[in-house]
Amino acid sequence: MRTILILFILIFNIFPSKGETIPVLNKTNYNFLLHLPDTYETRIEKLPIIVFLHGRSLSGTNLDRVKRYGVLYAKDKGLELPNAIVVAPQTNRGWDPDNVMEVIDYVLENYNGDSSRVYVCGMSMGGYGTMHLAGKYPDRIAAAVAICGGGNVSDACNLAEVPLWIQHGSADKAVPASESKKMYNAIKKCNNNADAKLTIIKGGTHGSVERLFHQQGIYDWMLKYTKDQKE
Questions:
Q1: What domains can you pick out in the chain, each with its CATH number?
Q2: Model confidence, pTM
């Protein structure tokens, strides 16, 4: 009986039900939550992949924490997400872009994801992780949204190759808006025609900007982009 139960759990993790959010454990360096839309089919059109990178407060080894804010939290609160695969990894020591890309590659290999439509968004530490990932892998990310974070100016020229929407609250006391402004200015200095925009939300605090994940705006903006798959 125990063997049957273990087999059932393994099958469920490999082939989750449509519309479910499941944990994927010990497959990559980061454990992650995976959400497949109700429309998911393995033999029909490939779906975009939306990656959410959390902030420091959700770090650890309990994946349920990753649902406390962000994309999956917005879904649980009633937001109708785009017809996409949502991936929410968890870290306990900051974001390593190579480990995040390992998660993306695993999802592309095992689920019906579209490699030309991989999007990343994150908040706070996840905003830094978003820019670092897109800065290291500009050829892999179709578009990115970084909220109340920052980045390394050494990534600026690579980030100029990725459509990027940077958002920050003007009243953020945890991570000052100057962090986002610094990155935006560095990107534009590298390429003034870069598809990057900066939105400073008047009166926005470090926590209040989480509401952006509950609005369609960032998803509509990201999904209008597709990465050229040039050989």
A1: 2-223 (3.40.50.1820)
A2: 0.90
